[in-house]
Amino acid sequence: MILRIIMRINCLLVLFFMGFAGPGVASEEDYKFCTVGGYFSGTNDKFLSGLAGHVAEKKNVFGTPICKAAWENGYRIGEKLSRTGKIEGSAEREIIHQATAFSAKIYETISSRINFSLP
After folding, report:
1. Would you say 28 and 88 are in contact if contact means Cβ atoms under 8 Å apart?
2. 38-80 pLDDT, tens digit each
3. Helices 28-42 & 46-58, crossing angle to 10 degrees?
4. Residues whose CB falls within 8 Å of the CB of residue 117, separated by 6 or more in sequence, listed in order
5. Phi/psi of residue 102, nearest 5 degrees
């Protein structure tokens, strides 16, 4: 009887701590980094693609099925835009907008931390 109670308590404790051990629940916003990373990968921009992938990894979404699908979609759009220069539809326009905002934020952050002066 006592052994059963101890086993139940142990099981409950394991379940309780497993809830805190996982990466947590990702938000839709976290997956935008996957789409943006894929987009820049499709445009052959390794710098911004790598940064977006790094952020997605920090948010524990990189490598998940949803992130992989978002990355592939972004890649397809980036590659197509690089090849044709054409945007088709509001979904593509939104992804390009997200990528442009990400790029602007990265370059603004970098340039704000560097004292530019030429000799």
Report:
1. no
2. 999 999 999 999 999 999 999 999 999 999 999 999 999 999 9
3. 160
4. none
5. -60, -50
Q: How far apart are CA 34 and CA 51, in angstroms?
A: 10
Decide: 49 and 37 in contact? Cβ < 8 Å: yes
- Angle CA(10)–CA(14)–CA(16) in degrees, nearest 5? 115
- Nearest-5° Cα angle at 30, 17 to 44: 130
Q: Please report where in the chains the tokens 């938000």 appear, as a residue.
A: 27
Looking from the CA of 26 toward its CB, the CA atoms found within 13 Å total: 21
Joined together, the tokens standing for residue 117 give: 């002066």
- Taking the C-alpha atoms of residue 67 and residue 74, their distance in angstroms, rounded to an integer, is 10
Contact present, 70 and 76 (Cβ < 8 Å): no
Give the residue from 27, 42, 18, 22 showing the smallest Cα distance to 99: 42
> Cβ atoms within 10 A of the Cβ of 71, count?
26
Enter the tokens of residue 75: 């890649």
